[in-house]
Amino acid sequence: MTDPELLPEAAVLGRLGHEKNVWLCTVRPNGSPHVTPVWFVFLQGSWWIGADSGSIKVRNVEKCPRVSLALEDGRFPVVAEGNAVLHRGPYPEEITDAFALKYDGWDVSAPHRPGGDRVLVEVAVQRWLLTGTAQ
Which domains does the chain show, CATH number per domain? Predict the structure, then answer.
C-alpha cells in the first residue's frame, strides 16, 4: 500500500477512478522495456492490474518487479513508478468488485484462455513522476 503522503491531488485521483487504460512498462530479462496498455483500478493507494499468469508482463515482473505506469493523455500526463507484487488468489473482494464496477461487470479473476489462470498485479507507488502537468 502506498504511503498516504504519496497520494496525488484530488483531480488526479478522479482521473484514476474513471480512465480505462494505463500503459504498463515492465523490464525484460535483457533490460529492454516492454510496454502494454492494460485495464486497471487504483485502490488502497495502489494500481491493480489483472493479467494472465503466463503473459510477458507477469514473467517480466517475476524477474524484475520495477515498473512504470502512464495514463494515455499526453496533454495532462500522469506517470508513476513502483515495484509490482503478484497476487495469485484468492483476490480481495474490494478489488474484484472495483474492476466489475469500472468495466461493466468484468470478472478480473476469470481466465481468458482455456486452462489459464489469472494474477492480480499490485503496484504501490514509490514515486509520482508527473501528476497532470507536462514539464
Answer: 4-130 (2.30.110.10)
**Cell numbers found for residue 128:** 509520482
Quote the cell numbers at residue 26. Answer: 515492465
- The pTM assigned to this predicted structure is 0.89
In tens, the pLDDT along 10-48 reads: 888 899 999 999 999 999 999 999 999 999 999 988 999
Helix (H, G, I), strand (E, B) or coil at 40: coil
Burial classification of residue 46, based on how many CB atoms lie within 10 Å of its CB (0-12 exposed, 13-18 middle, 19 or more buried):
buried
133: buried, middle or exposed (CB in 10 Å: 19+, 13-18, 0-12)?
Answer: exposed
Rounded distance between C-alpha atoms, residue 69 and residue 127, angstroms:
11
How far is the CA of 41 from the CAs of 30, 63, 71, 97, 135, in angstroms?
29, 24, 12, 10, 26
What Cα–Cα distance (Å) separates residue 36 from each residue in 3, 80, 85?
Answer: 26, 15, 17
**What contacts 126, CB < 8 A, 6 or more positions away?**
6, 81, 82, 83
Residue range 69-81: mean pLDDT, rounded: 90
